[in-house]
Amino acid sequence: MSTLHLDAEALYTDLLSGVRGLLPPNAALVGIWSGGAWLAERLQRDLKLPGEIGVISSALHRDDFSSKGLSSADPTKLPFEIEGRPIVLIDDVLYTGRTTRAVINELFDFGRPASVTLAVLVDRGGRELPIHPAYSAARIALPPGHKLRLARDEAGRFSFDIQEGA
Amino acid sequence: MLQKNPQLNKHGELIHLLSIEGLPRAVVHGILDTAGTFLSVNDREVKKVPLLRGKSVFNLFFENSTRTRTTFEIAAKRLSADVINLDIAKSSAAKGESLLDTIANLSAMHADMFVVRHSESGAPYLIAQHCAPHVHVVNAGDGRHAHPTQGLLDMYTIRHYKHDFTNLTVAIVGDIVHSRVARSDINALTTLGVPEIRAVGPKTLVPGDLKEMGVRVCHDMIEGIKGADVIIMLRLQNERMSGAMLPSAGEFFKNYGLTQEKLAHAKPDAIVMHPGPINRGVEIDSSVADGKQSVILPQVTFGIAVRMAVMSTIAGNTA
Predict the structure, then answer these.
(1) Which of A27, A36, B99, B306 has the CA that lies 20 to 30 A from A10?
(2) Cα distance between residue A58 and residue A38, in whole Å
(3) How far apart are CA A158 and CA B196, in angstroms?
(4) Which helix (H) or strand (E) holds B314?
(5) Confidence check: pLDDT of B15 > 60
């Protein structure tokens, strides 16, 4: 698996057209901190959507709080009313689905959206909850110990950071 | 080899909050950052997060303090904990039960966290040493020793208005010798790198050993607040007046009460803080307490977020 090559920029182009295709009218993009927020920011620009994106953190609803403690993350910032609004959640990597579950709970602390859709750059399988993305730019398989996450350089270009587990 | 700090586990994570003294700067900043997250919970439709769901927080106030107890209660409830308030002063302690017997009994009721206010310095340490490993202890004020959550909320307030600690002059004014708030503030300000800390008050109310902590002692109010960015006024307790440490409230106000006239010697954008409850006309003039430089009420709001941060931080770490 160490030879795995993922071109994050090429996948982003696919994600852009994927999200364009599924975007309901009046939808708001909400990026999951941190990689998803970077993607949502760029999608908002490239899709020429008005206003600001939302950024959402899983920290306050994580199911591993009692074993891992509070995770550090930027706080959730939703600079718009979510009540009755179609929400498109954006994430870099979808794995067990536990983060997605936590951010859906977080979202509902702010109101009742009309719908919640999930679009991701990479779906690496390994789901532990019944969560399915409406769009994923790539599907790959990685051994459970491996860590995969999005990185962003100063110029705003994306790449993947892969750490091999024990 | 450093002496083990009983507040930290072997990974250096906070498991109890007993005192700010000896806490690494990163731990203090971590709590302040977390408090920032909790402050925005007030803007939500659902003003509650589930981090302490299913946990029981026991407020053990061996000394009365309605306000502090209430802010801890609100903080614990916003974290979804069950909160049990025990007015210990009127119950078990009055019946002669020892502190550790009380703790053993409450532990048998499946307490997960004790918030302790006690007139004896060190009581929260004793409890932390004797409770079960999964139980966390927060010091809500012990004797003259420490009031760490007040110290942290004061730091949150300063950071909110001043952003950076490393270029500040902070004056703490009033009855410093009896004040656990002053002690916690001095420890926190030192940890966060504040270059100039001043203790201002009459000789009878300012301890002599403060200089060893790097604090500048001033017995003249104007000299003490001159050019200050932050002024922390302390509450003057009524019993000090009868204890011959002070001539009278009027005399104290004349020399050390914060008026607009005296405040003009601080920086124009200086903030005025007070842990409450305030004695108008004793340590602070109404026009200052209600004035535009006063941040006394924001301190109360920040206090809830800071207490949420403390409770969720320690509850998430294991001994």
Answers:
(1) A27
(2) 16
(3) 45
(4) helix B296-315
(5) yes
